């Protein structure tokens, strides 16, 4: 199964939702190109076209933020006031970033989240629509403002971020509605992050597991321990190096130490851990198998690293649900992240599928 080559704007055509995955198993189908004298690109949209013109969608459940950017030469010291060179507000949030990434990679994508009845909510809604994301499960709440973040962007592209949860953390129903849970059960793959309440993530992960839908949890967000109840319902945990160290209370200063920290995750019940290592690349650890390492695909210039991890995780998920091998998934995700860091902003930097394919052909 895969993204339809005819599906250039997912928001205009609703997919017929089918669940085609075997119980409790992440898909790892190998691509077998048809006999041809010309090499076939396994990442092309047509390579995985569904024979029945229906694909189970990517469902992203998570946060949506208005990112308030301030461009600075350096971070201020304690008690110090400095001037920013520039400031602007752009759409972002880990959940919205990943949803737009899925949409721009031409895979049918739903976003389940909350925004407030304010200008920032409108900004995010328009950005999601522009990325081709289905918004049937986006709620607008009146008792909380849209979540926002202050992004302090330094000249080398590195950033420091402060998040205000707003509607991402407030006003969720005690129990998600049946319509929301149904889209989860009929997904091809589900993406979660930790910028919404753990209770919501647990409900979603349980619903996905009941329907044998694989779940990836991006560890980014609140810095509290991940509830064991959530861990037992996810298939892949995806932290960056810092998050892995915090979650395991172990050092991640070398590959050996990263492997030991991942071993602790395995003992916590997570069989697959996808670690994002910034400029050092990424590694997929599967319990009982050799790790799969992927180096970065170098960018000519790093403008802004905001959203790069979200791009990587979402692109990996899209490749996985399309049936690509794990190595192909890692390479596809690395190419998408390389394009992301070359553009300022989170949602504005999400790459389209054609650009990713072109980069993969060039490297």
UniProtKB/TrEMBL annotation:
Cofactor(s) for this UniProt protein: Mg(2+)
Keyword Transmembrane helix on entry: no
Pfam families associated with the record: PfkB
Domain called Carbohydrate kinase PfkB: residue spans: 58-352
Pathway where it operates: Carbohydrate metabolism; D-ribose degradation; D-ribose 5-phosphate from beta-D-ribopyranose: step 2/2
Positions bound to K(+): 304, 306, 340, 343, 345, 349
Origin: domain of life: Eukaryota
Binding positions for ATP per the UniProt entry: 240, 276-281, 309-310
Spans annotated as Disordered: 24-48
EC identifiers of the protein: 2.7.1.15
Subcellular location: Cytoplasm; Nucleus
Keywords (A to Z) from UniProt: ATP-binding, Carbohydrate metabolism, Cytoplasm, Kinase, Magnesium, Metal-binding, Nucleotide-binding, Nucleus, Potassium, Transferase
Polar residues bias locations: 38-48
Catalysed reaction, written as an equation: D-ribose + ATP = D-ribose 5-phosphate + ADP + H(+)
Textual note on the cofactor: Requires a divalent cation, most likely magnesium in vivo, as an electrophilic catalyst to aid phosphoryl group transfer. It is the chelate of the metal and the nucleotide that is the actual substrate.
Protein family per UniProt: Belongs to the carbohydrate kinase pfkB family. Belongs to the carbohydrate kinase PfkB family. Ribokinase subfamily.
Biological function: Catalyzes the phosphorylation of ribose at O-5 in a reaction requiring ATP and magnesium. The resulting D-ribose-5-phosphate can then be used either for sythesis of nucleotides, histidine, and tryptophan, or as a component of the pentose phosphate pathway.
Name the UniProt record assigns to this protein: Ribokinase
Organism: Penstemon davidsonii
